[in-house]
Amino acid sequence: MPTNNTGKTPINTRKPVQKTQAAGQSQPQKNTGNQNNSRPSTPKQPEQQPSNTVHMRMELARDEIMLDDTALVTDILVTQKTLVKRYGNALCEGSCQKFRSILNNHLGEIASDQFDSFLYMQQNQMYPTEPAQSQKLCEAKDKFKQTEQKMKR
Predict the structure, then answer these.
(1) Phi/psi at 148 (5° precision)
(2) For 110-136, b where at least 16 C-beta lie within 10 A, e where not — what string?
(3) How many domains does one find in the chain?
(4) Domain-embedded: residue 59
(5) Is residue 61, in this structure, part of any structural domain at all?
(6) Does residue 12 lie within any of the structural domains?
(7) Which of these, 117, 122, 111, lies nearest to 82 by C-alpha position?
C-alpha cells in the first residue's frame, strides 16, 4: 500500500473528479429562430476551473484523512473480530451440513487472520497486554470446574 513521506497510508488515493452536469438535467435548447419556441435559449456557461484555494483545501483534507499503521491495523483487527462473531452466529443458525461446513472453514480462516493481526500489533507495541496473574487464573479454573460440575448433575 502506498505511503506518503509522513509514514501514513492514504484511505483514498483517487484523484478528485470534476463535477459534470447532474443527471436528469437537459442541455439548454438552442434558438433556431422559430418564434413559436416557448423557451428562449440560454447561453452555455464556460466550465469554471477550481481556484488554487480549493485545490489547497482538497490537499489539506486529503492529508487529514490519512491513517497511520496503528490505526490501519486496528481497523483491520476490529473488522476481523466482527467477522468472527458474524460467522459464529451464522454457523449456529445453519441447518444444512454443507453450509455449516463452509461457514466453519471461513470462521477458522478469519479467526486465524484475526490472531495474526493481534500478534503483529502486540509485537510492534500497538496492542500492549499484561500477563495474567496466576492467582486469577486458578480462580477462573476453579469457577469453571464448579460450573461444569453443576451442569453434570
Answers:
(1) -65, -40
(2) bbeebeebbeebeeeebbeeeeeeeee
(3) 1
(4) yes
(5) yes
(6) no
(7) 111
Q: 118 is in which domain, residue-wise?
A: 55-147
The answer to whether 73 and 117 are in contact (CB under 8 A) is yes
Are the beta carbons of 13 and 2 closer than 8 angstroms? yes
pLDDT at position 150 is 87
Q: At what angle do helices 97-123 and 69-93 cross, to 10 degrees?
A: 160
Q: How far apart are CA 114 and CA 80, in angstroms?
A: 5
Domain-embedded: residue 87: yes
Query: What totals of helices (H) and strands (E) does the chain contain, helices first?
Result: 4, 2
Distances (CA, A) of 77 to 69, 87, 104, 107, 130: 12, 15, 20, 15, 19
pLDDT of the chain, 153 residues: tens digit per residue: 444 444 555 444 444 444 444 444 444 454 444 455 555 555 555 555 556 787 778 777 777 777 788 888 999 999 999 999 999 999 999 999 999 999 999 999 999 999 999 999 999 999 888 888 888 889 999 999 999 888 888
SS3 state at 9? strand
Q: What are phi and psi of 104, to 5 degrees?
A: -60, -40
Task: Identify the pLDDT of residue 152.
Answer: 85
